[in-house]
Amino acid sequence: MSKKVLVVDDSSTIRQQVGQALVQAGFDVVEACDGVEGVKLLSGQHDVSLVICDVNMPHMDGIEMVRTVKADGNNARLPIVMLTTEGQPALIRQAKKAGAAGWIVKPFNAARLIAAAEQLAA
Amino acid sequence: MLAAAIGFTGRQARGSLALTLPKALALETAPLEALEELVLSDWVGEMANQLLGRLKNRLIPHGVDIRLSTPTIVEGRQVRILALRGTSICEALMCGGHPVFICLHTVVVPSIDLRACEEVAQSEGEAVLF
Question: Does residue B122 sit at the A interface (CB-CB below 8 Å)?
């Protein structure tokens, strides 16, 4: 059975681009356009193996989403990788402290993204 | 023509970046078929966002931190960037036979110090797992 990945980004083209790469690699993909929608989706779906999440988003940003997901007992162990244009070390440290599993700076390399997804969703 | 403009602010620098390109080029470069105007404007905004994000990350080793705003996308037959107080750098490039214009406008504080510091931004495309 395919592993399911939740892609959270306010850019529809990034969601499609990431989703297409993941589907081609054999993953199932679900999408959310911000942290609030992502958290809501995770509360209803317990078969998600990995979250790939933008940082700067309206309503709830990516780091706040990591904190919220990690505070939920059901998803505390769910790996979350940040995919963002931000490369600032202080922000990366914040995400790590919040419980994120990794950080990728856009524009992303599909092969590296898939390798990270395969490692974390295993 | 389509133009995406993004403003940025920071303690040491503020300004904006405008990326202008023909709609045909935006359609050609969109990762997937951009049939809807919303998808196309999202793509042009994302390109401008990633371009300014690259600048932001290159300023980090110099101790300059900027915050980016949300892109604004406009469409018109002729788009001209008007002069502003501060420093503007405009570059015209060709991409697949189409013209692309990139204008960066900046206002910096007189005391700005671009000496290298210890902070280094993570490289583009690199996947770092904690």
Answer: yes
For A11, the closest of B42, B68, B125 (CB atoms) is B42
How far is it, in rounded angstroms, from Cα B71 to Cα B46? 8
The ipTM is: 0.83
pLDDT digits (tens, 9 = 90+) for A74-114: 899 999 999 999 999 999 999 999 999 999 999 999 999 99
> Which listed CATH number (3.40.1550.10, 3.20.20.10, 2.30.110.20, 3.40.50.720) goes with B2-108?
3.40.1550.10
The reply to whether residue B56 touches residue A86, judged by beta carbons under 8 angstroms, is yes
B57:A87 CB<8 A: yes
Q: SS3 helix, strand, coil % of chain A, rounded to 5? A: 45, 20, 35
Contacts of B95 (CB under 8 A, 6+ apart): B21, B25, B29
